[in-house]
Amino acid sequence: MGKELNHKLEYSTGRKLAAWAVHLFTASGIVAGFFAIVAIAEANFFLAFILLLVTTIIDGIDGTFARMVKTTEVLPNISGKTMDYVIDFATYAIIPAYLIYAATQGGISVTDGGEYLIPDYLREVTAVIILLISAIYYGKEGMVSEDYYFVGFPVLWNLVAFYLYYVFNLPPIWNFILVLVFGILHFVPIKFMYPSRTQKFQVLNIIVTILCIGSNFALLVVIEWDFSGVYLEIIARVVSILTLAYFGFLGIYHTYFDKETKGIA
Q1: pLDDT digits (tens, 9 = 90+) for 23-60
Q2: Which residue range(s) make up the domain with 138?
Q3: Total domains, the chain
């Protein structure tokens, strides 16, 4: 009892406040996610994608902050990892599933002659596929390998939604086919990079991740704010696709060709 009490008292108020601040920062992701839902309900898909981008940035850096202030030691009764799982499932699966279900091509409403991102008769099926696959993937043992790779395509339906809406511009039926492809890839044992934790090529991986986020944000803004410079849109789209190709290539390379990483799961 005495040792436990001493352990609780050894951290200063400042350290505890810092740890609480990190947990609140992590929790703010669900707040941004909630207002993304509101934006989708109001057909403001631009704002919804901005808010989902905010949740991605929070998720990408909160772990670094947590390790810096040692939240698990300073506040042992609060599990940042559990919070992270709950928020991630909402922002990477549930909300993007709703976005893909509700979004229309180019933001033009169906009543004004627009089409849904997914064929109308397949929207419910698509939402069910995304949610069921994501839930099963989260429950799978070994979702992250010992050397910090996602085994199978990770639950990143926010990214899938963005590429369907802003980057590829495919007919609705092809968008549905891509959803099926990404759903299947969840269970194909390919090692996908975990940007903040994968050690191999870590600096390059982080640079490419920043380029991916930056080009996607630029593409979103250029399209939505109707910039006259067409070259900006082309450059942003090309960089966005190239970074996606890099992640795919790296997954295949680490799974089947790299002697240091293949076969470890």
Answers
A1: 899 999 999 999 999 999 999 999 999 999 999 999 88
A2: 2-191
A3: 1
